[in-house]
Amino acid sequence: MATPSKQKHDTAKPTPASLGISTMKPKFQQYALPSKRHESFTEASVPWPKTSPVKVEDLVAAGLVYTGVGDSVRCYHCGGGLRNWETGDDPMEQHAKWYPTCQHVLITKGKTYIHCVEAGENPEHLSEQRPKVKQSSPDDLAFQQQQEAMQAAAEFGYSDESIRIAAGLFRERKGASSKFKGSDLVSILMEMEDDPDLALNADVLDSRSPATPLDQTESADDDLQSLVFENERLKASFNCKICLDNRADVIFLPCGHIVSCPQCAPALDLCPVCRKSIMGLVKAQFANTRIDVENDYGECDA
Predict the structure, then answer these.
(1) Given this model, what pLDDT does residue 250 score?
(2) What is the CA radius of gyration of the chain?
(3) What is the mean pLDDT of the chain?
(4) What average pLDDT does this structure show over 199-203?
(5) Which residue from 86, 50, 43 is spatially nearest to 65, judged by alpha carbons?
C-alpha cells in the first residue's frame, strides 16, 4: 500500500540574530562597560589623536576600544577593527557597515538599523518616520525644569517653604528670569543653614504669582509637587539599574526581566533580579513611550 511521503519544508529555521536576539558573549568582557572603553582613550600610554574627526564619546557608544596605535580601534564584542577615520564618519554606522553581525550593534540599534546600513540607506531618516508628538512651549518646558529642580532639592529633605525661599534668593542674585538647577538650590539651602538671617531677608514672592491668592498657590504647589514626584518616580523606574542614566530597554532571556540599557547589558552574566544566567539579550521596543531618536526606529525603506 502506498503511503504519503513526508512534506519537505523549505523554510529555514530563523537564527537568534535574525530575530534580533544576541546570544554571544563579548570577546573582551573587560571593556563591556562604557566607562572602561572610555578609559582606553583617556588613559592610554599613547594618547588618542587630537586631530581625529570623530568624537571619543561616539566611539565608546559604538562599542569601540582604543588600541593605542594611530586612530585604530577595536570592538569589545566582535573584535572587529576600524581605522583611518574621515570627516563625517559615524562610528556606529561604520561599525554596522563593516561588521553587520556584531552583537553590540544588534542589541544597541536593532536589526532594522543594520539592514538600512547594509542597503546604503541613511539610518537617521528612520526617526523622521516616527509619528510627531505635540511639542511643549518654551514657557512650559522652563516651568517644568524649575519644578524638577525644586523636586531634586526636596529629595535632600528640605521643606517646600525653604526651597521656595532658596529659589527667591537665587533670583535676587542672578535676576528674575534666571533658571536654577537642583544643585543651585541645595547650595543656597546649605547657606541658609549656616546663616538663618538669609531666610528672613529673602523675597519669596518671586516663586509665586503675586496675583494668585496664597491658599490657592499652596494648594496648586502641593498638587504640582505630587505630580512632579510621581513623574520622577515613573521615569526612574525606566532607568538602567547599572548606569542610572539611559533607559532600560533590554530583555534578559530566558527570565524576561528588563534591568539595563544596551550599553550595560553585555557586562552582565547573571540577571540582577533573579540571579539566573543570561542566555540571550533582545532589545525591547516600547509603543507607548516618548520618541527616542537614538533608540527607536521604524521600518527601513530599502
Answers:
(1) 92
(2) 26
(3) 78
(4) 67
(5) 43
